[in-house]
Each structure stands twice: as structure tokens, then as C-alpha cells.
Amino acid sequence: MLKASIFLCLCCFGLNSFCQNVVISEYYNETYPSDEWAEILVITDNTNLTNYTFRGNNGSQNNWGTAITFTSNSLWTNLRAGTIIVIWFRNVNSTNVAVPLDTNKSDGFIQVHCMLSTHFSYSGSQASVFGVAPYTSSKGNSFEVANGGELFQIRDSSGNNIHTLGHKATVTNSGNLFTSLISINKLNHSSAIVSFSNVSICPGNNISAYIGGTSDTLKTSEGSSYITQGLPNKRASDTTSNLEFWRSLRHPPFDTINLNTPIDSFAFGKVSLSWTTSGWTDPNPSDGTVGYIVLRNTTNSFVAPTDGKSYSTLDTVGTATVAGHVYLSTTLVFTDNYTFNCGTTYFYKIYAYRYSTNGALGTARGRAYNEKGSIFSSITKPYPIAQSINSN
Known about the structure:
By secondary structure, the protein is mostly beta strands. It contains 4 helices and 23 strands.
């Protein structure tokens, strides 16, 4: 499993002097701009997109269009690593049906549209930027994917390029903005595309796969077979997707959870557990995103909880039982009130998680558990000591 901590900060990487905190992972081309969208992946914890901009180009890659600016809405602050953001280019699709919205970031997934004024600002009227209602008309390079070529770029609040993804068969033409962009945080898929197809970074199994400054087909893919909106990217020539990399970002990146020897009290009527973490400090513990699940077993046999699945107390994970949860990353204690049997040894293991319980199995969405877990610890309840009775 890749370690998210390896990727948490790539400051001073290549020609950039700022953090690689987000990347553009995929975008989709359709007949109408209102059916098109782009996908952004958050790389670092506590990312703040306020006053970042997102913009498109044109078929020749030589003219930037109107940019949308992320507002100071709380949705864009304190974003957790591994969050997936889908941005639709219009507020309705080509059949005038409103695009779905998801502005609850607690499960690490956000879905919005460019025209959502509470979350984005832009210059010009809706008609001049997006077209006439139901906003299906073409508006040049203002958030519309051209078959022959395209560039999408996200910039920080100072106008620095954070990441650019595009497609075009050749980028050597005069005035080409992909070529002139002095940054390695860019990729171009060196081919034209057709409608009903995507451009994605694939296989994308580490952060280096998302950057490099190249124009080729080694790190990117296009086609209609694997449209993976909000899901890990995949293509036919790969046996795996970038699911493992996405999962590594979404896990709490603790190097170690050290579980101390349990302490019994009140004749072993309860057991007190405590632990320490190393290798990472939660930058925003107050959001309650990072927590712990406590497993109890009568054998030293544990399997990690399943990503995307929520567990209640007394549920089973393998042969272990869920003793309980701790819902705050800075709370490193737990009391197990349980009916313990004399002469039985009880084993404990702690697993850290990030994100809420809402999710789907195998999709890098919803709760993500760090499979490493703590070193196990155990305690045995002794038999009562027989005491003699003085009959005098």
C-alpha cells in the first residue's frame, strides 16, 4: 500500500515553489457543453481552494477563456486529502434536467456546477459565459471541450499554475499555451478525441504520474469505455486502476499507532485502552473527519475493516468484534465496558479512519481505514482468588 504521507507535500517540486495540493484527474467531452464536466482530486490535507481559479482553453490551445473563481464558501476550506470534486460545466444537462449536487464533503466527495454562484464567481453574465438557458449552446472556450484540443487549468490565488490537463495531437504550433506554460505540473494527451469520450490521467498510481510536463499517451488515456466520473480512473490496457493511490490519500497517514497495555479496573469490569500516534498531526481535528475503530478478539487474529463500510458496536470484522469507536483524532483513549470471562485473554487492535460512513465499497468514496492498524495488545481476566473463612 502506498503511503499518503509520502505525497502530503511536494513543495519546491520541479519548477514550482508551492504545494501540489490538487490535480485535474479527468474531463468528459459530449455533444453539448451542458453534459460535460471535469474532476479534481485533492492531494494534501487541509487544502483551501478559496480564490483559486479554474478555466478552459480552445481547440488550438492558444486562448484562455473566462475563469471561475472558488468563493470563500466553507465547502472549499479544510478539504481533506483524497477528496474528489466533480464540476459540471452547466447547471442543467442537455435535456434541461438539473445536474445533481453534493455539497456535503464529509464523505470526501463533492459535486457542483460552474454556475453555482454561492460557490463560484466569474466575470460577465451567465449568457455571455455559459450561453442561453437551458445553457446548452456553445460559448467557444468558456467551459466547453473541443474535439481537436483543450486545456483545463487550476491556479492558486496568486495566479500560479497548480495543474493543467489537456489534449491535442501536436503542441508545437505557434502560440500554443501548453508548450509555453513553464511548469512540470501539466500533461497533454497527444491525440484528438471524439464526443462521448473522456481524457483522464491513467493509470495514475502515484503523484508523479499526474505531472511531468509531457505531451504523449504514457500517463493519460482517452476513450468511451471507461467514463469514471468521481471514481478511480481506468483504461482497457491496464489491469488495475488508480484505486490504490486514491485510497492511500484517503487513509489517515499514521506511520504507527502504539497501543499501550490495557488497564483493568473494578475486578475487570472494564478495560481502559490508550494509544499514541506518530508520523502525522491532524491539521483540523475539529471537523471530526478522522477517528478510530476499536476491535476486540479472543484470538490474535485481525483483518482490517473494509473501506466504504460503516460498522456499529458489536458488529464483526473477520473474527473480531467492534468494541466501539472514537470520533476525534486527538482522543487517544477508550473504555471497553464488557462482560469479560475469567481465564480468557482478550486481544485489541485499533484502526484509524478518515471520512464519514457514507460511501460505496471499492470506489474510493466514503470511510477509508488505514489497514496497518496498531500493534495488538492483550489482557487476561484472572480467576477469583479463593479466600479462607475464619469460623472462630
